Amino acid sequence: MIDDDPIIVDTLAMILKVNGFDAVVSYSGDHAVGLARVAPFSAVISDIMMAPMNGIQAAIAIRALCPDCKIVLTSGNERTAVLLAEAARDGFSFDILAKPVHPSIILEALRGSHTRVMPGD
User: Fold this and answer.
1) What is the structure's pLDDT at 36?
2) Chain mean position to CA 6
């Protein structure tokens, strides 16, 4: 999971681990991309509104490294629609969940993917 809020990321990682996922935590998009270069992920959960690399930019970079990676984005920010439209214009689309997201919804979104998950913002 990628999120610049450590409490959110650490809590979700704990929930994922209790539910059988091998969760890896990252507090920034650029750090998450570096982790994906070292060991590919099968799924990533990421908040969109982060700086300097936002969640969509991180998702695009991770998708280039891990083409089969399931990407789930989360956001509670109104600017998200603009960023998603820009990504769609460039040919990218992602699942998005509106914050606050109950952990059961995230678990449901991940079911069927492999067990190495990067939790995120």
Assistant:
1) 96
2) 14
